[in-house]
Amino acid sequence: MLAAGRRVQRMLHDSGAGRWGWPTEVGGLGGNTLFRAVMYDRLEAAGIAVPVQYEMLETLAPAVMKFAPEVAAELIPSALTGEHAWAQGFSEPEAGSDLAGLRCRARRDGEVYVVSGQKVWTSQGIGASRIGTLVRTGTMDSRHRGISMLMIDLDSPGVEVRPIRYANGENELAEVFFDNVRVPAERLVGAQDQGWGVAMFLLQYERGNYAWVRQAHIGRLVAGLAAECDETDNLQAHEVGTAWLAQQSLRIKCGRTVQRLCAGAQLGPEISVDKVLLGTAEQRVCDAAMNARPHEFALSADDQNRQWRADWFYTRASTLYGGSAEIQRSIIADRVLGLPKEG
């Protein structure tokens, strides 16, 4: 998947299309982020899957540009060409949704940080060149006040990447182990012990720009289902219609979020709505493909149905990663709607 995406990225970069919306300081051609949003929409509408590497760039790159412009100028140009893919290293075996409890340790030693620990459920860990990693630079008692973010090269001595095999046999996630890995101190994103603020800033773009890439892809899948739908089959029509409504709900809400981010707004707990809508839409479209034609979905060996099955397995986690749907709904209830507490 990454190899095919790299080729598409290279073509987009060389044509200039993949550089619009990125600052000139990081190898772009300038203009605001809406250029990128339009490109993703146009690609998917043309039947071309947006390279998955753009998903990670849209999540990590805005934070790197804001908090570490020199690191951004060094690393983003080769990411835009597709030469060096990025991964995100946040979750750990004992710190998934509770990032403040992470244990992966980074100790300052002169001009380097020495990193030891483990990350798990690392998206795009297989094939990536670099990983944006949250590490603990303070004590465990410091919680979110003792976290920092580093950009770590995955070919550094002491790094081991192990694939996590899905039930469908695919390797799309990974565990990453750090054994006294020496990372140049200039790869720090933001100030030491200020990584929580970086992560919270980044979260806006995971809910906004990343979700926009995903909604464009979901829209193409729904359009494909609609094109194959037997209008006389009420079940198929219902499944496709429900999937379309889920995708459109995400598109409308996420589009507003992307526009607000483009205007420089600092977003708050309301972006949890985007996360809930994204997980719902991703699962709904794959469930529609399964329910509308269950025999082909389960048994066909052609490429289309193999991909549907792979997507179905992937989307089972979409209401868990990045903060579970239950946590997001609690945030919406408490901090957006102001609902009364239980009891």
TrEMBL record:
Keywords: FAD, Flavoprotein, Oxidoreductase. Pfam families: Acyl-CoA_dh_1, Acyl-CoA_dh_M. GO terms for cellular component: plasma membrane. Residues 193-337 form the Acyl-CoA dehydrogenase/oxidase C-terminal domain. Its EC number is 1.3.99.-. One of its GO terms (molecular function) is flavin adenine dinucleotide binding. It comes from Gordonia polyisoprenivorans (strain DSM 44266 / VH2). It comes from the Bacteria. This is Acyl-CoA dehydrogenase.
